[in-house]
Specification:
Length: 246
C-alpha cells in the first residue's frame, strides 16, 4: 500500500513536469497537485501535503472542486498540529474549514472537521453547533455525533453526551473510543454498573485498550471486588506499564 502511494506521488509529479504551462485540457496541474497532496496525506507527510494543496489552489483558485482541496488542507493542518503540538496550525485548519464552508455551505465534512479543530481549541459550544449543522446535512455522520459527545463531555453535560455517543454507536457499533468516552460520562453521572459495562465493551471491541481495563479494575475495587479488580488492573499494566504508577 505504501509503495503504491509513493508511486502515485511520483506519477502526479511527472504529470506536472510533462505539463509545465498547465495547458492540458483533460487533467490540469491543480488536479495533479491535489492528487499528490492526498497521497502525501495518506503517507503521513502532512507538511508536504499542505504545500501541494496550496500549489493546487494557487494554480486554479476557481477549480469547481476547490472546497475539497480546502478540506484536505484543513485535515493535514489539524493532524500536524496534534502530531507536532503546533497550535498555530489549528488556527490555519480552522480558516481553511471556513473557506470550504463559504464555497459550499452543505459541505458536512467541513463542519465535522471544523468541530474537531474547535474541540482542540477548547471552543466547545461552537463545536457542538458545527456538529449539529453536520448531522442536519448528513444524519449518518458518525464523526459528528462522536465529536458532539466529546464537546459535551468537556462541558460536563454528561447526560447529553451519552445521548450523542449512543447515536454514534448506532452508526458504528465497533468503535472502542466511543464506548470508552460514553463510559467516562456514565461514571461521572454515578451510573457505575453501566459505566463498567461500557468499559468492558471497549475491551471486547479493542482488546488492547489499556485504560478501559484500568477503569474496570477501579470500579470493581470501589465496590470491594478486589480479586476481579486485580485481574483487570494487571491486564491494564501489562498493556501500559505507566498505568501501574497511578
Amino acid at each position: 500500500m505504501l509503495d503504491m502511494l509513493a508511486e502515485s506521488v511520483s506519477c502526479y509529479q511527472e504529470a506536472v513536469t510533462l505539463n509545465p504551462d498547465n495547458s492540458s485540457i483533460e487533467f490540469g496541474n491543480d488536479e495533479a497537485y491535489h492528487g499528490k497532496g492526498l497521497s502525501l496525506q495518506f503517507l503521513g507527510q502532512h507538511r508536504k501535503a499542505m504545500q501541494s494543496f496550496k500549489e493546487a489552489i494557487r494554480i486554479n483558485p476557481n477549480n469547481s472542486n476547490i472546497y475539497n482541496i480546502y478540506n484536505s488542507y484543513a485535515v493535514s493542518a489539524y493532524t500536524l498540529a496534534l502530531k507536532e503540538e503546533e497550535p498555530r496550525y489549528l488556527e490555519e485548519a480552522l480558516a481553511y474549514c471556513d473557506k470550504a464552508i463559504a464555497i459550499n455551505p452543505k459541505n458536512f465534512a467541513a463542519y465535522t472537521n471544523k468541530s474537531s479543530v474547535l474541540i482542540e481549541l477548547e471552543r466547545y459550544e461552537e463545536a457542538v453547533q458545527c456538529c449539529d449543522l453536520a448531522v442536519r446535512i448528513d444524519p449518518n455522520n458518525f464523526a459528528a455525533f462522536f465529536n458532539k459527545g466529546q464537546a459535551l463531555k468537556e462541558m460536563k453535560k454528561y447526560k447529553e453526551a451519552v445521548t450523542s455517543f449512543d447515536k454514534a454507536i448506532e452508526l458504528k457499533p465497533k468503535d472502542a473510543a466511543c464506548y470508552f468516552a460514553k463510559a467516562l460520562c456514565l461514571m461521572a453521572l454515578g451510573r457505575y454498573r453501566e459505566a463498567f459495562a461500557n468499559f468492558l465493551e471497549t475491551t471486547e471491541v479493542d482488546p488492547g485498550y489499556a485504560e478501559a481495563y484500568y477503569w474496570c479494575g477501579r470500579l470493581l475495587e470501589a465496590i470491594g471486588e478486589k480479586d476481579d479488580a486485580w485481574f483487570f488492573k494487571r491486564m491494564a499494566i501489562s498493556l501500559d506499564p505507566a498505568l501501574g504508577q497511578e
